[in-house]
Task: inverse folding
């Protein structure tokens, strides 16, 4: 039973390694708790990122509806700056996932190879594959988020540059097609962030749910 609990915690560490500062594959309670904290932090960061997209879309609408173009532009520029930071964070997160997963998968395999029982090794190998598949889905979703930032940010930055040249109601009207074009790109970004949030929620549910033949993480 202890071996199965240990393998389960190793699996959690693998899933969370891209968002945890130091979860080694030792299965120790303190490290597992650190991994959980890293998970919560990343999940919260995604919620903030999605809210930032909403702010940008609202600020985008404000350009067309506000009677004070300068005030609307100031609000809009602040939202673009926040979104640029969020896009950079998404890039780092996706890169971290790509770089670390192979090393930790290999570490898990090394620990499996040290177990003498063939039946236990087989069970752990199957669990490793399952966890690896889940992680691959998260990694793919994180890459989608990173990619979705690019067109939306390009839209917003082009609009920002155009208005910086001519900050008048007439120019806002002239660039209205570009404003309308940016909105679906923003919605697509929101959708990809929500998709990644959903993947992480599925993993969180797996952490707290006892599955057939597998003890809960605290057992």
Result:
């Amino acid at each position: 039973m202890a071996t199965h609990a240990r393998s389960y915690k190793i699996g959690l560490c693998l899933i969370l390694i891209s968002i945890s500062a130091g979860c080694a594959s030792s299965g120790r309670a303190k490290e597992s708790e650190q991994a959980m904290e890293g998970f919560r932090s990343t999940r919260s960061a995604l919620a903030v990122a999605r809210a930032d997209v909403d702010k940008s879309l609202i600020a985008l609408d404000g350009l067309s509806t506000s009677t004070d173009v300068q005030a609307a532009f100031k609000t809009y520029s602040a939202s673009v700056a926040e979104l640029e930071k969020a896009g950079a964070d998404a890039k780092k997160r996706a890169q971290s996932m790509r770089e670390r997963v192979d090393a930790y998968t290999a570490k898990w395999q090394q620990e499996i190879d040290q177990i003498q029982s063939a039946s236990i090794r087989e069970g752990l190998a199957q669990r490793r594959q399952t966890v690896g598949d889940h992680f691959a889905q998260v990694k793919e979703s994180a890459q989608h988020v990173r990619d979705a930032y690019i067109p939306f940010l390009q839209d917003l930055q082009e609009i920002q540059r155009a208005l910086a040249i001519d900050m008048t109601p007439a120019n806002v009207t002239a660039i209205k097609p570009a404003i309308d074009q940016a909105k679906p790109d923003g919605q697509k970004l929101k959708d990809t962030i929500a998709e990644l949030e959903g993947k992480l929620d599925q993993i969180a549910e797996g952490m707290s749910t006892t599955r057939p033949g597998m003890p809960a993480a605290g057992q």
